[in-house]
Amino acid sequence: MFLEIKDLKVSYKTVNGKSTVLNNFALNLDKGDSISIVGESGSGKSTLGGAITRLLPPSGEESGEIVLDGKDLLKLSEDEMTLIRGTEIFMIFQNPLNSLNPVKTVGYQLIEAAKIKAERDKSDATEEHLNNVIIQALKSVRLPDPEQIIKRFPHELSGGQVQRVVISMALILRPKLLIADEPTTALDVTIQAQVINLLKEMNRDYGMSIIFITHDLSLAYVISNKIMVMYAGTIMEFNGSDLLVKNPRHPYTIALLKSVPTDYKTNSKLYYLKGAPPSFFNLPRGCRFHTRCEKVFGKCEVEEPPLISIGGDYKVRCWLFE
Ligand SMILES: Nc1ncnc2c1ncn2[C@@H]1O[C@H](COP(=O)(O)OP(=O)(O)OP(=O)(O)O)[C@@H](O)[C@H]1O
Fold this sequence. Notes:
By secondary structure, the chain is α/β, with parallel strands linked by helices. The chain has a domain at 3-76 and 215-316: Rossmann fold. It is 32% helix and 23% strand. It has ten helices and twelve strands. α3 (106-121) runs parallel beside α6 (159-173) and α4 crosses α6. It is globular and about 70 Å long. Bound molecules: adenosine-5'-triphosphate (ATP). Adenosine-5'-triphosphate is lined by residues 12, 14, 19, 21, 39, 41-47, 57, 59, 215, 280. One of its GO terms (molecular function) is ATP binding. Residues 3-257 form the ABC transporter domain. It is a peripheral membrane protein.
């Protein structure tokens, strides 16, 4: 197994006390897998990314096991973890400026990434070669005028441009695991499609494993071979992308799928799921989703369902499948 997460617990200290966002969380990923984590805002998707990279904010604390290629990341020192970030794992943040140093030019930072990669591969590290590598990477993410872009500082670029610079950095570093947290939110739809295709190529051509974090099930379907649906910090359904979309089991997954607009020609009203996800300080008894569920029945209000197997590793957390 390439990535094995077991018994992961993540809490945040807040002024109202401690809130536990992930509890008993588990996830397995094979090499070359591309998995999407899908859920509404606040379901704990970014928290998972932060926990894997050990880049949670200071108020966050985590425990459990996150074993990547045989190493338990939660047991590594900060120095060892720094080495792993950028080479074995790379995270593209929702806010791309978080990934770049504001006082260094884009070119300087990309050259640093290219140097790390050349050292790791013991390949050509001449200035001319490194320069070619970064220009090529910027062209791959369809950034016009790469020679100009490399002279600028991150704040001199638009949000979409910065995001593409960060993606080009991932392209240069070719980590074993790429965690992309809503990487296309700041991009126009046309560029969004190009970036998604690029991520798919990275997965297919270099066998890079990808954890793609999104609230958009249709994007998840396009990019990943597996989808995990999260609600209020728990896994509600996990299945191969095709099966999850064509034969969704959990009422939450069904509601998410119904909310995806499919017919632009008719003026039909868009479906939306009523209500809002619960607060982590006041989780409902029983199934966390029961207050919004169309299929709710007695047991759902009293006991939280376990993850029930629907074949192999695939699971659903719903009493309907007991
Ligand atoms: N620094 C923090 N301090 C306290 N609570 C936090 C912190 N960061 C996140 N949380 C809480 O953790 C929960 C999960 O947040 P998280 O950002 O992981 O969700 P998400 O699914 O990624 O949402 P979004 O799609 O809006 O980014 C939320 O209730 C949020 O308020």
